[in-house]
Write a structure and sequence with these properties.
Radius of gyration: 16 Å
Order of helices and strands: EEHEHEHHH
Strand order of the largest sheet: 1-2
Number of helices: 5
Structural class: mainly alpha
CATH architecture: 2-Layer Sandwich
Largest sheet: 2 strands, antiparallel
Oligomer: single chain
Distance between the termini: 38 Å
Number of domains: 1
CATH superfamily: Ribonuclease H-like superfamily/Ribonuclease H
CATH class: Alpha Beta
Helix content: 40-55%
Number of strands: 4
Shape: globular
Length: about 140
């Protein structure tokens, strides 16, 4: 399950889910993020060195959106620490190791966790104990003022 996380607010702005990890899946997550954020050309997209992020299809997608790709250094486990931390927390908090009856049940639980809990209710210490949505709301008011 690939995610696109805004490094400033820690908000998950794009994600996709399937039973197979393909380059199309990361392209879908990126598409969701672009539809939500409408980024300006030149945005830097950072990822690990996974085959999906290194794929021709994904690199073409980044080129089409006029984004610059940045990848973690080979063997650097800290290069994608924000995503790794998100997934570690998701695994601990989501279901405690329960097994879902169907893929639809798993997808529904992921939606609930990401879109309802993590982005809107879960406070992050890095954000002065605000939720990502609240943090974005406060910082956008400061930029306008």
């Amino acid at each position: 399950m690939p995610t696109v996380i805004d490094l400033h607010s820690r908000k998950v702005v794009g994600w996709s889910y399937s039973n197979r990890m393909t380059s199309g899946l990361i392209c879908d997550a990126m598409g969701a993020a672009v539809r939500l954020r409408h980024p300006k050309p030149g945005l830097i997209f950072h990822s690990d060195r996974g085959s999906q992020c290194a794929s021709r299809a994904f690199r073409r997608r980044l080129w089409r959106y006029r984004m610059t790709q940045s990848m973690s250094a080979k063997g650097n486990c800290y290069g994608n620490a924000v995503a790794e931390s998100f997934f570690a927390t998701l695994k601990k908090e989501l279901n405690g190791g329960d097994v879902y009856r169907t893929r639809a049940d798993a997808r529904s639980a992921l939606f609930e966790y990401i879109e309802v809990f993590d982005n809107r209710r879960r406070m992050h210490s890095l954000l002065d104990y605000m939720t990502p949505d609240k943090f974005e709301s406060c910082t956008s008011k400061r930029r306008v003022a």
